[in-house]
Design brief:
The chain has about 120 residues and is an all-alpha fold. The chain has seven helices and no strands. Helix 1 packs antiparallel against helix 6 and helix 2 runs antiparallel to helix 5.
């Protein structure tokens, strides 16, 4: 999982990303049990990244939550998708920073120098 989130963050650094990559990133993040151990942990992330709130019956199923989020993503404008990409980048950076806490293994796996 650690390698996946670093690769995702590096993909999100690009200025232009196709929609299928962003939707794949959304799927990987929402279905990850390592990032969100419980379904209730999805609520703050959905609100901060997507500005979405779902009813309780939707949040009981990760796949239903993912499907509703992807449906929301498909109808977004280009500017909203760019904002979403930036929010996903910040979220991935926060996950990496909280997980590795700037340890030596982080710098070995990151393969770049942070400025």
């Amino acid at each position: 999982m650690n390698d996946k989130i670093i690769i995702i963050r590096n993909d999100l650094k690009n200025k232009i990303i196709s929609d299928y990559k962003i939707s794949g990133i959304i799927v990987v993040i929402l279905l990850s049990k390592e990032i969100f151990p419980h379904n209730a942990d999805l609520v703050p992330a959905l609100y901060s990244i997507f500005s979405l709130e779902f009813k309780d019956y939707v949040l009981k199923s990760r796949t239903l939550t993912m499907a509703r989020t992807l449906r929301f993503f498909e109808v977004m404008s280009t500017e909203q998708k760019f904002t979403l990409k930036n929010n996903l980048y910040l979220f991935c950076s926060d996950v990496i920073d909280s997980h590795f806490q700037n340890s030596e293994s982080y710098w070995k796996q990151a393969k770049y120098v942070r400025i």
